Amino acid sequence: MARRSLRTKTEWINNDFGHVYLGRRLYRGRTPFQRMEIFQHGTFGTLLFLDGKIQISARDEDRYHQYLIDAPLLAHAAPLSLCILGGGDCFGLEEAVKHRSLKRILMLEIDRGVVDFCTRHYPAIRRVRRDPRIEIVYTDARRWLQAHPETFDVIAVDLTEPHGPSKMLYTREFYRLCRRRLKAGGILSVHTDNSTLFPDSFATIYKTLRSVFPFILTARVDMPCFGMGWTYRMASAIPISLRRLEANTRRLAGRGVLLKQFTPSSYLLEPTPEEDHVLKRLGRISSDARPFDKFEHSAAKVTR
After folding, report:
1. What is the pLDDT of residue 3?
2. Is 289 contained in some domain?
3. Is residue 28 located within the same domain as residue 165?
4. What is the tens place of the pLDDT at every residue in 237-272?
C-alpha cells in the first residue's frame, strides 16, 4: 500500500477518545438507512463502518460471530432453527451454515444495501448464500417478529448498538417478544458492550435482559478491531449448560470445523469488582416508553 495513497480514518469512541486507522478508503456512500464506509487497513484488512461506527474487520469478524452465532448453537441441546436479527454483513450466516443440525436459517435485515454490497465484495458470502437453508427477509426485525408467530431454537441479535432506530430492539418489551418467539429451551444471543468505556450501556443492556430471562451466561472477549474488550451474553428461560457447550465445540472440531477464535472457557471468567459495581450502581431497564440511547448525549462526531 503506497504511503501517498494512504489516509486516516478516525472513529470517535466517545467525546474525547477515539481510534485512528491508516489505510485506504475503498468505498463511501449511503444506503436508504445509513452511511456505509469500507476501509482497507494493513493490520485488519477490510473494515466496515456504519454511521461512523466500526462493525467488523476481516481479521477478527469470526471472533465476533463465533461468540454471537456459534456459541448459542453449541449450547443448545438440538438446534434446528436460527433467526438472525440484523446481520447485514452476512458473516453470521457463514458461521450458521457450519451447523448440520440446522434446517432453517432466517435472517431479518432492514438494509438490503449492506447485504448487496457485502455479497458483491466478499467471495465467502457469495458461497454461503447458496446454502438452501438460508432465507433473507428485508424488513424491520421487530415488526416481523410481532407479525409472525414462528418460533426458533436460537435468536441472535446482530444489530448496531442501541442508538437511533436500533434502540427499540434493546428494550424489555422487545426481549419479551424474543422470549415468546423462542421454542422451549431456546437461547437468545446478544452482544452487550464494554463495562469500562460504556458503563451505562453495559449495565442497562444486562439489566434489561435479566428482567426477562432468568439465566444468563457471559463471555468477556478482546475485540482487536474495536480497540477494547467486548461482552457477549446468552440468555434463556432454563439453565444454559456449559458442559454441553464444551462437548459440542469438541465434536464440531472433530468434524474438522475448528472455531479458531472461540473457547468455551471464556464463559468461566468471573466479573471484576469494578464490573460488579457497574452492574449494581449504574444503568436501568430500557423500555419502549423510555428507550436507552447509548449516544444520546454524545457529540455529533461520535456517530458520523
Report:
1. 53
2. no
3. no
4. 999 999 999 999 999 999 999 999 999 999 998 889
Q: Following CA atoms 68, 72, 73, 76 in sequence, which dihedral angle do they give, to the nearest 10 degrees?
A: 180
- In this structure, are 20 and 70 located in the same domain? no
Taking only the tens place, the pLDDT of each residue in 134-153 is: 999 999 999 999 999 999 99
Per DSSP, what are the bridge partners of residue 27? Answer: 38
Q: What is the pLDDT of residues 168-203, one digit of tens each?
A: 999 999 999 999 999 999 999 999 999 999 999 999
Q: What are phi and psi of 147, to 5 degrees?
A: -85, -20
Q: Considering only CA atoms, which of 251, 192, 257 is closest in space to residue 221?
A: 192
- Hey, which residues are catalytic here? 158
HSE-CB of 30 using CA atoms within 13 angstroms: 4
Task: Look up the CATH number of the domain holding residue 53.
Answer: 2.30.140.10
**Domain total in the chain:** 2
Residue 34, domain extent? 3-57
Orientation of helix 199-210 relative to helix 273-281, angle to 10°: 70
